[in-house]
Amino acid sequence: MNTPALGDFRRIIVKVGSSLLVDAKAGAIKESWLASLTADLASLHRDKRDILVVSSGAIVLGRAVLKLASGPLKLEDSQAAAAWARSRSRAPGRKRCRAMHHRGQVLVTPGDTEERRRYLNARSTIDKLLEWRAVPVINENDTVATTEIRYGDNDRLAARVATMVSADLLVLLSDVDGLYEAPPDADASARHVPCVARVTPEIEAMAGAAGSELSRGGMQTKIEAARIATNGGTHMVIASGRVEHPLRAVAEGARCTWFLTAANPVTARKKWIAGTLEPRGTL
User: Among 23, 158, 224, 227, which residue carries the largest CB count within 10 Å?
Assistant: First the structure.
């Protein structure tokens, strides 16, 4: 089965997980790795591609610096940790993104991708940032989201945003280099799956649980994200983020797993708007 190449795509969303971005023990961002990722993003951006980033790590960074206890946090502790971390990370972020001219932070909640008016407003904001050649940096609004409404992971958030903005590729940078027939930590003989033409029950059965407490998701949520993205007309790839210049590695043929879509992103988005979004108020 032929797989695409990174250079084939015009509008790319890159999701970066907490365990890749933050050194929890040191209570700091992994500066060297982030610099290499930013260089990759800048290279794609200079090549006239639209680039969006879905990031996580605010809660993890905040809890590490504030020395909060390990294990699940209370909702109010998670929200406060996220707020604390974001207030102290803006300046370094601006410096790193200079190579891409401008960035714009966008905080969303599930309602922004599931209620029609808010969906259209969020999409218009992101479209305007892209028109200005900015790089939108998107995250769930941890400071206000509640237990009942939050996504709980940024894989599915990234897939919803991909559908919203008609992206043609979603890259999930992970602590593993793709999907295996069984969780490789539990079964060293598990075979890597390089390409998935369609998310089936058999593919879903290959997914295991989250690999660490830094991640709210895991392979299960990545498979769910693949279903959302491919149904919305977006190809998706799971690739390792444990190497420097992870996007360049994908472009050069590093091991990863591609999830393919047969749908057109614009057509799929219109169909989804018409049949899925909850109407709230009038347009």
Answer: 158
**What tokens were used for 178?**
């793709």
Q: Which pair of structure tokens corresponds to residue 164?
A: 């919203």
**Tens of pLDDT along 134-146?**
988 887 754 444 4
3-state secondary structure the chain: CCCCCHHHCCEEEEEECHHHHEECCCCEECHHHHHHHHHHHHHHHHCCCEEEEEECCHHHHHHHHCCCCCCCCCHHHHHHHHHHHHHHHHHHHHHHHHHHCCEEEEEECCHHHHEHHHHHHHHHHHHHHHHCCCEEEEEECCCCCCCCCCCCCHHHHHHHHHHHCCCCEEEEEECCCCEECCCCCCCCCCCEECEECCCCHHHHHCCCCCCCCCCCCCHHHHHHHHHHHHHCCCEEEEEECCCCCHHHHHHCCCCEEEECCCCCHHHHHHHHHHHCCECCCCC
Structural contact between residues 41 and 14, judged by C-beta atoms closer than 8 angstroms: yes
- The torsion of the CA quartet 182, 187, 193, 199, rounded to 10 degrees, works out to 0
Please choose, from the candidates 17, 40, 100, 53, the residue with its C-alpha nearest in 3D space to the C-alpha of residue 251. 40
Give the model confidence (pLDDT) of 61-96 as tens digits.
444 444 555 665 455 554 444 444 444 544 334 444
Centre a 10 Å sphere on the Cβ of residue 231 and count the other Cβ atoms it contains.
Answer: 17
